[in-house]
């Protein structure tokens, strides 16, 4: 169950990052509200995952899901650059997440 909580936390991290971008510096109400709720949910699910997962594993995977997810949303939704070096960097982060999962208990 901890891994499910961790994935939910990571997805919510992507949601709040995107909502923060859409809030235009906290000047738009709904994106700001979505950001605040998803941020609280993300941290809450991370805390639930950390009940059984090691700190280093949980935090690394949480931030990695957020980083790669925000990168993908930036490309797919916001039209950001998808250069070979940026894709390689995201792939390396993703491979690190897989290795962290495979080497962690739980």
UniProtKB/TrEMBL annotation:
Listed GO biological process terms: xenobiotic detoxification by transmembrane export across the plasma membrane
Major localization listed first in the record, in broad terms: membrane
Subcellular location: Cell membrane
Keyword hit for Protease: no
Keywords per UniProt: Cell membrane, Membrane, Transmembrane, Transmembrane helix, Transport
Family: Belongs to the drug/metabolite transporter (DMT) superfamily. Small multidrug resistance (SMR) (TC 2.A.7.1) family. Gdx/SugE subfamily.
Name of this protein: Guanidinium exporter
């Amino acid at each position: 169950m901890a891994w499910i909580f961790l994935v939910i936390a990571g997805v919510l991290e992507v949601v709040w990052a995107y909502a923060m971008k859409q809030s235009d510096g906290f000047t738009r109400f709904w994106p700001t509200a979505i950001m605040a709720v998803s941020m609280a949910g993300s941290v809450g699910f991370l805390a639930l995952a950390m009940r059984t997962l090691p700190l280093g594993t949980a935090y690394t995977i949480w931030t990695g899901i957020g980083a790669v997810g925000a990168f993908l949303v930036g490309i797919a939704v916001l039209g950001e650059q998808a250069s070979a070096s940026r894709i390689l960097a995201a792939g390396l982060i993703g491979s690190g997440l897989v290795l962290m999962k495979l080497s962690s208990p739980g």
